[in-house]
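Example 9 (inverse folding). The structure is encoded as follows.
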């Protein structure tokens, strides 16, 4: 069985740290907490879990703090978490099984990072991250903000999910770090251009976001998934600014990087639905239903676009086309994913009434 060091960087996390450590304390062999300046009970809570606590002066560089934490690990593998992350019981069991069976030649294990869930606990947004890495490889973190861990070798993609459950919103923290870098005359890397644009987008600074997304794409050095995501965000920016022509241009541009993603197909479906071009909308929503998430995808996944949303929108399209049986069929498909969605329930009631009136609804199925 391998041994595992848990490495974390924290600051004023008294509201979430115990929850995180409760979910993993029995899975790891040592806990290393790098504190970047807490003024609350964070250190006291960490001590209660037998953590090794090391101070690190904060310098607006997340990679520096994470590399510092990794440098103090002593076990075979390093597992990293943020304080507002947890592993649910099912994933704790999977993690323990992995720990007992992981071959020694594995250099990194990826896990699913669930960024948001709906009211039923279903993940609606996720991304895959390298989470458990071999210490002897001395992998390094890169990037002051939205840092990434550079790994190589034999990588295992697991189905273990790390759940992100933030309580506090650090809404402008990363934006300020980027702004500070720009004020100091530092040049942003292609990756930082993309993530800075994301921060601007989240703050609804759409014009500036457009500028930096376009700069990112013009470098032609971006990761494919980031290029596709940038095109989608550019479309969203232009939609918000009322420029549908430019929005449409960037959705189509996303197809230059790889096969269509369901998110982009749904954007096109929505565009044509708004234009009341229902047959064109049907085409793009139907395509979305036929796609599967690429097995090697490391990009952000908006699960609604890959599951229930295109079916719900197909129900709307077919309704306007007067094809009520097809509308009902797709509403039922959407219902398989989101049985309590108010739009699904409304559509079901309406369509059952219409189909009953037209004597085409199969009475035995009611």
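The amino acid assigned to each position is listed next.
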């Amino acid at each position: 069985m391998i041994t595992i060091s848990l490495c974390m960087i924290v600051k004023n996390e008294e509201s979430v740290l115990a929850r995180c450590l409760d979910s993993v304390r029995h899975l790891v062999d040592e806990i290393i907490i790098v504190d970047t300046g807490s003024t609350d009970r964070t250190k006291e809570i960490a001590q209660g879990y037998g953590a090794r606590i090391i101070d690190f002066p904060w310098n607006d560089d997340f990679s520096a703090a994470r590399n510092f934490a990794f440098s103090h690990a002593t076990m075979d593998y390093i597992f990293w978490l943020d304080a507002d992350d947890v592993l649910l019981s099912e994933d704790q069991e999977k993690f323990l099984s992995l720990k007992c069976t992981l071959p020694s030649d594995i250099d990194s294990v990826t896990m699913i990072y669930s960024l948001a869930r709906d009211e039923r606990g279903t993940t609606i947004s996720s991304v895959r991250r390298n989470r458990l890495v071999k210490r002897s490889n001395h992998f390094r973190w890169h990037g002051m903000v939205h840092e990434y861990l550079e790994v190589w070798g034999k990588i295992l993609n697991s189905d273990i999910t790390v759940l992100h459950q933030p309580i506090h919103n650090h809404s402008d923290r990363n934006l300020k770090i980027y702004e500070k870098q720009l004020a100091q005359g530092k040049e942003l890397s292609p990756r930082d251009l993309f993530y800075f644009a994301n921060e601007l987008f989240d703050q609804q600074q759409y014009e500036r976001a457009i500028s930096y997304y376009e700069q990112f794409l013009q470098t032609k050095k971006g990761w494919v998934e980031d290029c596709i995501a940038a095109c989608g965000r550019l479309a969203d920016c232009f939609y918000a600014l009322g420029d549908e022509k430019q929005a449409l241009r960037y959705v189509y541009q996303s197809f230059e990087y790889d096969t269509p993603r369901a998110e982009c197909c749904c954007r096109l479906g929505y565009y044509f639905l708004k234009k009341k071009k229902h047959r064109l909308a049907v085409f793009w929503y139907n395509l979305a239903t036929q796609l599967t998430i690429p097995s090697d995808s490391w990009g952000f996944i908006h699960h609604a676009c890959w599951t229930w949303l295109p079916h719900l929108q197909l129900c709307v399209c077919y309704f306007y086309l007067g094809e009520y049986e097809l509308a009902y069929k797709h509403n039922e498909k959407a219902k398989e994913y989101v049985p309590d969605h108010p739009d699904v329930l409304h559509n079901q009631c309406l369509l059952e009434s219409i189909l009953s009136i037209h004597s085409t609804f199969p009475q035995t199925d009611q």
